Please model this.
Amino acid sequence: MNYHWNWHIFAQQVQGGSETYADWLAAGLGWTLACALCAWLIALALGTLAGALRTTGNRVLAGAGATWVELFRNVPLLVQMFLWFFVVPELLPRELSLWVKQDMPAKEFVTATLCLGLFTSARIAEQVRAGIQALPRGQREAALALGLTTLQCYSHILLPRALRIIIAPLTSEFMNTFKNSSVAFAIGLMELTFQARQMQEDSEQGIETYLAVTLLYFLCAIIANRAMALIEARTRVPGTPG
Amino acid sequence: MISICGVSKWYGPTRVLDDCSTEVAKGDVVVVCGPSGSGKSTLIKCVNGLEAVQRGEVIVDGVVVTAPKTDLNRLRARVGMVFQHFELFPHLSVADNLTLGQIKVLGRSRDEAIARGLKMLDRVGLAAHRDKFPAQLSGGQQQRVAIARALSMDPVCMLFDEPTSALDPEMISEVLDVMVALAEEGMTMMCVTHEMGFARRVADRVIFMDQGRIVEDCAKESFFGAPRSERAQQFLAKILQH
Amino acid sequence: MLPNLDLEVVGASLPFLWTGLLFSLKLTLVAMSGGIVCGTLLALARLSSIAPLRNAAAAYVNTLRAIPLVMVILWFFLVIPLLTGKPVGAENSALITFTLFEAAFYGEIMRAGIQSVPRGQVAAARALGLTYAQSMRHVVLPQAFRNMLPLLLTQTIILFQDTSLVYAIGAKDLLKAAEVTGKNYNRPVEMYVFVALIYFAICFALSRLVRRLQARVAIVR
Model:
């Protein structure tokens, strides 16, 4: 294998610029974290809603939840990115469409985050549904027997319990969100993978570049995993097995 | 207080309730018994609208439960229910289990709800356990908390759905003692149970069900003295054998 | 609002899209069969009593599962030519990458499948005098495979969607074909929508199939 190693590359300046390659990667990490975290919040909110809708027993609501899930689950994330970036702006009213295409601040970030959030929400919805269905039927009856409304029953009883049950799959979904944010390179969000490709072409030190970026992704995975473990410990109910 | 009039219910083609009619007067204690699958749990759940009926009418304290416009949540807040599997909310402390309905449904202040809840908790002999979680209590204790939870809502009547059948034998009496005391204070009660000792002691009437039909509905004395139907005689012989 | 859609471009693009779709399907099938074979070996290694083998397999699986697939694709595209000394092309690189990457995921499913077979089955097979390899081959793996069939297929649907990521190295799959046609005819909107519909139709149909399969497996158990 004929390869010229250069571990000092990260401190060197990029071609035709004043910043270093390390600066590029740091910026990339920042966008990756921002995109994944914001997408996660969107996904958690909409996924919980869609998953809960599917368990209401109301045909219209359950159908809406199911449609939501099937729609976002059966098209590749990369294709969804292109749809949001290239197609959706064309469907908007003329004024808004022009604004989105020309003036919207952080266009790539907003598009990628929204897209990743909706994509992930479908997967969370399935987990939430499974979590609610795993609860004994009597819990819903007991809540209703007290006079709680369906909404109160979900917000005070079913969802707090279901979310605790599914914390393990939610953790891996959270870690997936960081990994999946890498797809946003394709619409030009300057996150880690975008920077990796850019630095590889610019410096021609591919292995060092990819190693560094891979380690940064590991770091994201560990942060995500620890954060969820912390939440799990904080929300554990006394007397239940950990 | 409770009036059930010609109630029928089907699950698909299966008829689970067949033209059931009975009355429970204010202050009366009625025990509902019968073999498993006879529809007794379904019947009691029709009283607070947890199960919908396809034909017939249920009236509780002047409110027509089966009318589509009835505010079921308001009705359920006035009808206490105790379940076979307790159905305490495991993610909430004992105190929160007692206050949730009072605060969310009755609109009581937190202080008021706590005061009322603790009074009821004291009444079932568990005041010391207010800060524990359900999983930290024995089955008998959990069921007593569940009774206290129902009583905290100041119900006009109480429904018991096999309250002791999920309990170990040594815990049954602690729950029955609470129920006997309640009956002796004049609470209107409808109890699905196989505890014939309890029925003998406090019941005013006994209803025997089989295959979705009310086969016997008579005063305690005549039920235990000489039940008219052969089915009830067989049933009594079986459960009194031991 | 929606610019007047030009549906002619869709018709004109069909032969080109078909070639792209064929590559996407080829990539899926190769990675599926190769991935299941390699994954089963990985699963056996992870359940082996030999510690170094177990740890090596665990390290392989956990590493690949922690990195985004796009990075794995880029890695292999960079490293394979360095190792072989000559460029192999985006398509071949994709075939190798997906097989080795999917092995980690199929491997975890097969591991769960093997663990789902009661221990008594192995004991009974060994009591009959079968060797370790024979008892795996004839008793444990067939049951594990059967139990895990719905999950293996679900993973394959994910794999099919993931093949679109070869975009990162410019391999000519279904999505790339749509993008190129869209650019050539200056009709990207139509092409992106059309290709999304194709992906949806295939994945939705497959997921329905998996659900029916699941119901059937559940009854047999």
